[in-house]
Amino acid sequence: TKWVYTFGDGAAEGRAGDRNLLGGKGANLAEMCSLGLPVPPGFTITTAACNWYYANGQTYPDGLENDVKSALDHIGAITGGRFGDPSRLLLVSVRSGARASMPGMMDTVLNLGLNDVTVKALADASGDARFAYDSYRRFIQMYSNVVLDLDHDVFEEILEEEKARQGYELDTEFTASQWQGVIALYKQKIEEELGKPFPQDPQEQLWGAIGAVFSSWMNHRAITYRRLHDIPESWGTAVNVQAMVFGNMGETSATGVAFTRNPSTGEKLLYGEFLVNAQGEDVVAGIRTPQNITEAARIAAGSDKPSLQKLMPEAFQSFVEISNQLEKHYRDMQDLEFTIERGKLWMLQTRSGKRTAKAALKIAVEMAAEGLITRNEAVKRIDPTSLDQLLHPTIDPKAERNVVAMGLPASPGAATGEIVFSSDEAEEMRSAGRKVILVRVETSPEDIHGMHASEGILTTRGGMTSHAAVVARGMGKPCVSGAGQLRVDYRAGTMTAMGQTFKKGDIITIDGANGQVLKGAVPMLQPELSGDFAAIMEWADGSRRLKVRTNAETPTDARMARSFGAEGIGLCRTEHMFFDGARIVAMREMILADTEKDRRAALDKLLPMQRSDFVELFEIMAGLPVTIRLLDPPLHEFLPKTDEEVAEVAAAMNVPEEKLRHRTEALHEFNPMLGHRGCRLAVSYPEIAEMQARAIFEAAVEAGKKTGSPVVPEIMVPLVGLKKELDFVKARIDAVAKQVMTESGVTIDYLTGTMIELPRAAIRAHVIAESAEFFSFGTNDLTQTTFGISRDDAASFLETYRQKGIIEQDPFVSLDIDGVGELVRIGAEKGRATRPDIKLGICGEHGGDPASIAFCESIGLDYVSCSPFRVPIARLAAAQAAI
Ligand code: PEP
Ligand code: MG
């Protein structure tokens, strides 16, 4: 087995396509080398070696050691160095690199190979002792943190103390001998903490770092990140070892990161930040505030610190050319890392850049216009679930803004919540159902869970590429970073801004669009769905086969869904129409009535309400199909619970409260979800179905007259398992239809169909299709009944299942294709066998889940139906499934 792939000097053993084996970083380093770009020579230890390492009790495969040795010689042959030899100095960086980029999740060690002897050689070779000792102390810090597991703060404390003693503001002010002093303190501290000295042998250092990269694949942060992003553990990580180039070799050296287009807005402008006389980690760590790369960006930001363009025009020019070349080569926006060593540019990384949903749309649309990609590719480029970010509110421009601080607009969207100062607090409050804004000086990978639990993130330090900014954009959370006027005091649990003090629990709003921090809650606006969004949606609509309907029963939801492009209603849950105000009382009267006569009396009260609801829905959806489902839920959902509720219904029904209580008790069920619900209610109390059918038909007549286009209602019977259940209810529906047609003199076209949400219904679909003109797969109940897992109680143990690797995804969120999906496929096939033109749709939650939508496309359903906010996601996912 080949465990190691080398690259350097215009040649490489790997290519961009080897991402699975070499990881994203390694594959792209190889590719850049082959393109002839300036990349420090190096080698990649494969992900296969990482997997071998874990499969074999954390040991290395035979031959790896030799391969690494020859690869080091390969680097040496290019640079003229020899690893570990002070007379021919060769220092390396060691970085992880998984298949999917996991920003901040894995660890990096720079300047490896330095020790008490080689540091002198570095000082001599560079003619800059300050630089050499600065590099050595950085190495000790990083290595101790990443490999020896010492807390970062240990060193920060020593450093801060020394800075204070010297009266310095910046690290760069230290002289060589002062750094030597710091190094002595560091080494002393390490010995104290670990009981052994800092390793001096470069080979030991190297293997320590390689082992640390492999181990970090299984650290808590990495595991969390993988879980959140559905990255399988089996991918493993690669290790990249590269000759060092130094951005901290004085004022003509620098290091930076850049995007070929703005990752926040998508604007086509090189966008990035750098620091003079610094090493890689300084930029992302957000410790010094970085400078802009281009003059244009500097001016736009109103910064008085010179841009790279001004400061190092030649290196800037080559960087611009290389970034253009890479964007064209990869046909996507690139995220670049570079170092300038004494005026010479080196590329350290390229990869497709993470971006906000808004930027993703703009970039895709513009790249299609530039002819770099096709429209179908543009459609394929957008992650459907990310559209969610665009569908969420922004601050109403007319709202009064009580601005207490300004930071950078690090990730768009606005959010309101209670202040918390730690990630653990954020998680606790979130699980108590509260909305929080995580306020930190800066964030680190340890804060991922807290960021996830928050509505938005606010930091007082760090730039647009700080950890907080990058991660928040990836998560689609609003973020304001680097709000320098804010003083956060973790110990006191306060945040001070312009003379005002905020405590934990106080409400603030952040505006990720302009970097403002606002006091209190602020009115928000619904998003604008035009421009790039509309363009992508139009292209998606042109490519999809599946129709997209919505699950909606209120006029507000129905209108919203239409504005999101819904092509009808796939599920109107009529029971949801009975929850408010006077309706719930009438509903309770109906449920608690113990004679048909009383029940009919209550139903008579409900009829006009129900009818007017349907008229409104039919009007909103004029010209589009509307599926209305007859009453479905377990009746206990409607039973009065408090004494007041009982009293209210008793008064309305004119019966003693006591009697009502007995009736309530009599209706109690042990297993209501498998109890008296769905069509079973219609079988017991056909008058309910009759009332609903009447309301539907009368509304159809009325709305048809009003809108001028005839309404073709689709009446859906829930929870059918037996054809005879459907036949029984259908007979009532047909009878009412006849009556209403006679009464009104209007002919009504309508369809009667059923939910397929029980395994029996799927298996007997060919028989049920004799009576059903359409099927709608109710995959919520079908998942519940196929697994025998209660949809209401599953959350408490399914997460454990996931953690223990028994399931990969919650089957109530993403369809279990092998099991539940198989029943859907069988149901669809059998239904079509009996009735070739049967209409088939899905209306469980899965109708808005991209992976489930792809499955629906593969079995040829006619439509998916999902909640209004998911409609754009479904339109896009349906197109991607069809392309
Ligand atoms: C279903 O069961 O999938 C469904 C859509 O119906 P409900 O969620 O209302 O039970
Ligand atoms: Mg159901």
From TrEMBL:
Annotated protein name in UniProt: Pyruvate, phosphate dikinase
Organism for this UniProt entry: Oryzicola mucosus
Stated role: Catalyzes the reversible phosphorylation of pyruvate and phosphate.
EC number: 2.7.9.1
Binding site for substrate: R573, R629, E757, G778, T779, N780, D781
Binding site residues for Mg(2+): E757, D781
InterPro entries registered for this protein in UniProt: ATP_grasp_subdomain_1, PEP-util_enz_mobile_dom, PEP_util_AS, PEP_util_C, PEP_util_CS, Phosphohistidine_dom_sf, PPDK_AMP/ATP-bd, Pyruvate_phosphate_dikinase
GO molecular function list: ATP binding; kinase activity; metal ion binding; pyruvate, phosphate dikinase activity
Similarity comment text for this entry: Belongs to the PEP-utilizing enzyme family.
